[in-house]
Amino acid sequence: MRLRTYLIRRAIHTVITLLVVLVLLFVIFRLMPGDPSRFFIAPGQPRQVQDEICVSFGLCKWVSAPGHGYESQISAGDPGPYNITAWVNDTAGNRGRYGFVYNNIPIADSQNRNHPYVVVTDVTLQAPGVNPRPSLAYAEPGPTATVVVRAHIKVVPGPATVSLRVLYGTSWSTPVLVNESGGYVHWDVGIPLAGTYWAVLHAQNVTGIGVDFALGFAVNNPVSGFDLVEDKIYGVRPVFPPDRAIISVNVTSRSAAIYNVTANSRSPAGFTQSDIRLRHPLEAVRRNLGEQFVIYFLNMLQGNFGNSFYTKRPVMDEIALRIGPTLLLFGSAVVISYLLGILLGAILAWRRGTKMELSAIVVSLFFYSMPVFWFGLVLLWFFAFTLKNPDGGALFPLQGIGGFDPGSGVAFSGFGLVKDILWHMTLPLSNLVILGLAGHVLLMRNSMLEVMGEDYILTAKAKGLSERRVMYRHAARNALLPVVTALAISIGGVISGGVLTETIFSWPGMGYFLVSATLQQDYPSVQAAFFILAVITILANTVADVLYAWLDPRVRL
């Protein structure tokens, strides 16, 4: 088989392996006990945010909520009365107009409505044929409509002076005075036209101490072709943050479907928000398993891992900051350890039986059996704590990747940046290289010893080739085959060791990111880190297989 054909087949195998990894991640995720979407939900998130996260990960989809409501948010930062007008249009050309009000009262003002000597409670209003509502009334058509305002007044000392002023458009009505020492009072207020109105109830005692109570109401004549849904009356309700409010209109058309619902809002300062489009609320419902896998699969391939629970930023942005340091540390460790291991292993095999070989084997076995985290702690203790510079500072830094002057905080650039990064990378790189080098030296030595007994080595020597040429051109190249195989197998071990190394030395790479995300229960970040590390491992194995095919054409058969 030609090398080109082999590379194509190996690329196909790589893609299939990547797909298998995605399927396994999805299966593990879906087979977790309970609701798997809970891993995407940070504590304290509102229901709307939870639904958006569920939809973004493909577990849910948006559908129209039951009912006939249409909603939208408006700005409500100014304290005081807001007049809102909504227009409802259906597909048959019918158009309905409805007014309603919203009184944005600050907490301090709402608490000041009642005074120790003047108390106003149980304020309600009522229109003919409609149950009492706190801020809304509905009237039949006619020349005038009567709205009844009721309140309970208690003053000390009495008698009380109580008045009610109603705003018609831009003018107030004449105050209606009622002298009562306490109890319930009511007013029959004649409203000439349908619209939105505001009333201010004022109560005071004989000493002049008084309070004001503002309330709003709307008078709407029935509109031909439309029915208001009375179980959820239309109106405005405050939401968080307090500078927002939600307009809600629940209406149906008798002869057609609702085409659109729009509204205008006029603030206490006179600012008008026009053409506010109200939409039918949506709710998140579960997708079936097949749809979930397709969306999950596409999101993972596109790098859409969601937002981190801890930083609130996209996980892909967090990974982009850390993949570079990881590749720098891992790549340097693999290249240096394998180059030195191949060179030293070949030399030891060629000089077998010498004291150098025996000493190298003992040292290699010593480091080969040493745990990664233990050797890293030893390096920190000795080179970062014990040994000092002539100026008294640490010989090597304890953590980080550097890039700026720790004294002034000024970022390095050019050669100074490279020098500082290499200084910070010395200890973690030494940790990976020394421990990895021990295994590579032993493997290359054993492989060289097997090759040196082959007939073609004797033939090369008989031809009069130099010792160096025989060792490197004939023996070492063929001895590399087991080493390349070990390279593919050891990539996963290098990455796992790198996780411990990055954690010990606080190296801002993928390993440190994975450990931090796991401790913080940041599931989107953990899932993304596992996926990226799996991709790196798969690609590294592919590169190793290609090198193997280049070194030994027999594997292409």
Keywords:
single chain, 557 residues, alpha+beta, MetI-like fold, five-stranded antiparallel beta sheet, four-stranded antiparallel beta sheet, 12 helices
Describe this structure in words.
With 557 residues, the protein is of the alpha+beta class. It folds into three domains: 3-65 and 286-302, no CATH class; 70-280, no CATH class; 315-551, MetI-like fold, CATH 1.10.3720. 44% of the residues lie in helices and 25% in strands. Strands 7, 8, 9, 11 and 12 form a five-stranded antiparallel β-sheet that branches. Strands 2, 13, 14 and 15 form a four-stranded antiparallel β-sheet that branches. Strands 4-3-16-17 form a four-stranded antiparallel β-sheet, with no helix packed on it. A hairpin with a 2-residue loop joins strand 7 and strand 8 (171-172). Helix 9 packs across helix 10 and helix 11 runs antiparallel to helix 12. The N and C termini lie close together (6 Å).
